[in-house]
Amino acid sequence: MRYSFLFAAASLSGLLAAPLPARAQRAANPTQPWGSWFIGTLQLPGSEEHRWGGFFEFQARTNAVFRQYFYNELKGGLSYDINKNFVVLLGGGRYATRDYQDWGAGPLNVEKRLWGQLTLTQYASRLKLEHRYRVEQRWFSYRADSTGQRNRLRYRINAFLPLNHSALGPKTVFLSVYDEIFLNPRGPVFERNRVYAGAGYQLTRGLTLQAGWVLQANYNLPTIKQGQFVPQNTSAKNNVVLALSYRLARRNATAPAPERLPSQQD
């Protein structure tokens, strides 16, 4: 009961705090329609027996709910389990953005990304916490033949609360919330904030379904355009998230599979 209360309190405080930056400043962008994210992930987790693992993921996003497809991600990575609480990962991916109104014109921007990551997990009797630290290198290619390069730091805290069992496993219903901040050394330092809340069901030891809501807010630096000062503005968008993940099992494993957190890779 104590962990359930803490989980609810943390969730409520995160959801109330997320829109504050947007309310504190007058948004320069009009209200955006709800969008949708579709995420499919294939994982090979590491363990104390087999420390090497990896993942492969495809993600698609739409500007409106279930329509106006404009964005996709294709990424993968190689992981190593230091122990059951610490995992390091090296990942890379391709991220393409198009104009949904002119799909045939090709991508507006293609980003290639490489990152290093450390994940720390904490298992209580019921509440599960994950801390994820990531350093990204990003290379951009724009339709106008220009290019760019930026680095970014990310931190995410993700909480899971199984409802009908004390641990996450087959036939378990769970709640999940996370908050992630994106920091850019070149500015704006506080580049993005992402808040998620959802529910999931682990059907089998390998297959998990999740559905939820994510609010992604981007923050732009103040600029001077055509001799006029343009103040800092915030662009925020709500999205429906549908995620399907499948975790592969090792045939030659002798120890029972440990509890796994159904974390989203992005």
UniProtKB/TrEMBL annotation:
Keywords: Signal. The keyword Signal applies. The keyword Signal applies. Residues 1-24 form the signal peptide. Pfam families: DUF2490 (PF10677). This is DUF2490 domain-containing protein. It comes from Hymenobacter edaphi.
